[in-house]
Write a structure and sequence with these properties.
Blueprint lengths: L1 H13 L11 H20 L11 H11 L10 H9 L21 H9 L1
Length: 117
């Protein structure tokens, strides 16, 4: 997994702004749904904790670009993602849902405050 993330980091650093260069494609959407869940759910629950997406500058910038595509940000609920993944009893028998991580730009309270300003 991390070898692939490293490869994506290098690709987006060199070519960007999207996976296929200048065109936003289905591949971007498919990558986005993984990246947006990674730090909030996969990192802790699936123990894929070698690095976070936040530790990859190009992937983080890419994630922000996709979130800035009109209509995308409103489809993301980090709380829903965490509650969904952390409710899987065989993976999380205690049912404890972490408060974090702090994901700038994805916190719904901060987002509502930004939109109101």
């Amino acid at each position: 997994m991390f070898a692939q993330l490293d490869e994506l980091e290098a690709r987006l650093s060199a070519a960007g702004p999207w996976l296929m260069g200048k065109a936003f494609t289905e591949a971007d959407i498919r990558l986005f749904v993984t990246l947006v869940r990674f730090d909030a759910a996969y990192h802790g629950l699936f123990k894929t904790n070698l690095r976070r997406i936040a530790d990859y500058p190009a992937l983080s910038a890419y994630l922000a670009r996709v979130l800035d595509v009109p209509g995308v940000r409103g489809t993301v609920s980090i709380d829903h993602i965490k509650r969904g993944y952390y409710s899987i009893k065989r993976l999380n028998p205690t049912g404890i849902v972490p408060l974090g991580p702090d994901l700038p730009g994805l916190d719904p309270v901060a987002r509502r405050l930004e939109e109101a300003a």
